[in-house]
Amino acid sequence: MRMDNLHKIGNIKGTQHILGAFLLLLLWPMLGFSQTVPKVNAEVDTLAIKIGEQIEYKITVEADSTDVVFFPEGQTFSPLETVEAIMADTIKNNEKVILQKIYSLTQFDSGAYTIPPQRIAINEQPFFTDSFQVKVADVVVDTTKQKMYDIKPLIEVERSTADIWLTALWILLGLIVVGGLVYWFFLRKKPLTEEEKVALLPPYDRALIELKKLENSRYLIQDEYKQYYSELTDIVRSYLEEDVHVTAMESTTSELITKLEMLRDAGELKLEDDTIQQFQKILQTADLVKFAKNKPASSVAEQDRKLVEEIVTKTHAGLPEPTEEDLLLDEEYLEELARKKQRKRIYWAAAIFAGIIVLGGIGSTIYFGTKKVRDTVFGYPTKDLLESEWVASSYGFPPIQIETPEVLVRQEPQLPKETEELIKELQAFSYGSYVGIFSVSTSSITFKEEKEEPQFDAVIGSTLANFEQLGLKNIITKQEEFVTQSGVKGLKTYGTGTLERPNGDSKRAKYNILTFGGKGFIQQVVITWEEKDEYAEQIVDRILGSLDVKTQV
Predict the structure, then answer these.
(1) What CATH number labels 39-137?
(2) pTM: predicted TM-score of the whole model, two decimal places
(3) Which of the following CATH numbers is that of domain 381-549: 3.30.565.10, 3.40.1000.10, 3.40.50.720, 3.40.720.10?
(4) What is the pLDDT of residues 135-149, one digit of tens each?
(5) What class, spelled out in words, does domain 201-318 have in CATH?
(6) CA 35 to chain centre
(7) d(CA 349, CA 310)
(8) Which of 23, 279, 470, 525 is 20 to 30 A distant from 136 in Cα terms?
(9) Could you list the residue ranges that cross the membrane (predicted)?
C-alpha cells in the first residue's frame, strides 16, 4: 500500500518536471531576447518657410548601448536639399543610449513639398520616420521700391578650352617621355666600352694591344695551342688587311707571302727577306698546330708571338707615308662611317617609336574595341558631345529643367491660325535636327483656357506625324509612366523607326517623347538619335536623369 503511494507521488513529480521544462522551452525565446525595443522619432521645427530659409529636421533614436545605428546620409531628403548634418551629443542612461542627429534642409523654389520617410538602420533592421508636408513661400517684393525686369535672353558663351589644354598637356608629356627614352637609348653619345675604344684605334695600335692581351692569356698554361695560334694569325692577318690593304684573311699561307713579296717588289712595302721568311715560318707553324695537331714548345709559341709583334712593327714602318689625298679619303671615310652610325641610330629610334605606337594601338583595340579607338583618334560627333562641358538650364514657362551637352537655342515655330486661337504662348528650344544623328528639344505650351485639361494624345500624335513628314517610316511606339527626380509624373512615349534619306539610304533611329502638363499647359521633351550609338544612349540616360519640370503655372 505504501509502495503504491510512493509510485503515485513519483509519477506526479515527474509530470511536474516535464511540464516545467515545457514551459521553460516556451518562455526561452522571450527570456533570451528580452532586450529594449529601439525607439525612433523625427520632428521638424517648422512646416512653413520662405525660399532659401532652413528647416531643422531632428531624428532621435533610443536604443541599447550595444546596438549599431546608421542614420541617413547624403541627399535623401529630396525634393529638399541637405545643407548640413550635425551629430548631437549622445546621452547615456544605464544600458540605454539616446542618439540625435540634426539636418538643416532648404528649398529655393516655392511650392508644397513632402519630405519622404527616412530610413534608420538599427542592427541592420530598418526603421522609418514619418513624412512631413512643408510649404515654401515666395519672398514678397515691393514693386514700388524694387523695379521688375524681363528675363534676359540667352548669351552665347565660348566653349571652355580647359579640357583641350589638359589633353594637349598629357599628349605633350607623353611625347617628352618617349623622346627622352629615344634620346637616352639611341641618340645620345654613350660612354665607350673598352672594346669599343680599342676598335676605334688605328690598326697598328689595335694590333699591338691585342698581341699584349694574347701574351697575358692562359692558352699556353692550359695547353690550348690551337686557340693561341688561331688568335695570333687572326691578329696579324687583320692588321695586314686594314693597314697594308691586302686580302689576308681569306688567303692561304703561300698566297699571303706571295702578295707581300709582290708589294715589296713594287716598292709599296719596305720589308726585308728575313722578315718575310720569319713570317712565313710562323704561318706554317700555325697551320701545323691548327690542322695537324702539332704541339710546339711553349717557349717557341711565346717566341712566335714576339716575332709577330716585330713583323707588325716593321710592316707599319715599311709602309709609305700617306699622301694628302689618302688622308682626305680616310677622313671622308670616317665621317661617312659616323654618318652611317647616326642614321642607324635614327632608324632604330623611328622604328621603336613606330613600334610603340603600333603596339599601343593594337593593345588599345584589343582592350577597348576597334570602334572606341577609332572614335577616340578620329573623333565622333556624339562622343564629342558626351565628353563636352554640359549645360544645366531651365527652358520656357512653365520651366523645364534639363542638362544637355549644348545650350538649346530658342525657336520661333509658325503655328496655323486655328491653333493660334487656342494657344496663349509657345516657347520652344532645340539642338540638332530630327533627321540628324542626335537632337533634343523642349516646348512649353500655355493655353488661353486655363481650365482646359491637357490632351497628351493629340500633342504626341502631332510629334509622330512630324516624324513621318521628315521621312521616318515603320514607327514602333511604346508608352510608360515617367517620374522626374522631384516626383512629377508624366508620359514617356518611345520607340524606333527607319529614316529614309533623300539619297536612297536608310538608317534606324530611336526616339523619346516625354510629356507633362496640367490645367492650361503642356510641356514636352523630344530626343532622337541613331540606333546602336552607344555614346548617344549615354547622353539620353544623362538627360533623362537630370530632367525635371514645374507643373504649377
Answers:
(1) 2.60.40.10
(2) 0.42
(3) 3.40.1000.10
(4) 999 877 666 666 666
(5) mainly alpha
(6) 52
(7) 45
(8) 525
(9) 164-187, 346-368
